[in-house]
Give the backbone structure.
Amino acid sequence: MEPRGMKKWRPFATMPEQYIGLKEMINKQAEVAQPVLAEEQMEQINFTLIEALHTNKQVYLTYYKKGQCITETGFIQFVDSLGNLFIFIDDVFELKNKMRLSELIDVRFV
């Protein structure tokens, strides 16, 4: 006779669809609407982006993506205000990220 080992009773794990549905419901409850920025806030973000680009200072970027406000640290590499995009290099993986300026919520120096 062989020992059972560590087996736990998982009565609800037989329906993985239920877990997927519950996870989707929880994620939808955590979603927030995209904040609307005032004209002064957009100008301040623009000035901070340009200063960070020219001085190569590290910044905190807060942006809106798929119902969530995400904050990352990185360096600004390129800003195109006419094309409504900018490129930043994140601090963790040093990857280039291309984003729209309209997705930005806040930019602050580290």
In short: Strands lie at 58-65, 68-80, 85-90, 96-100, 104-109. The longest strand covers residues 68-80.
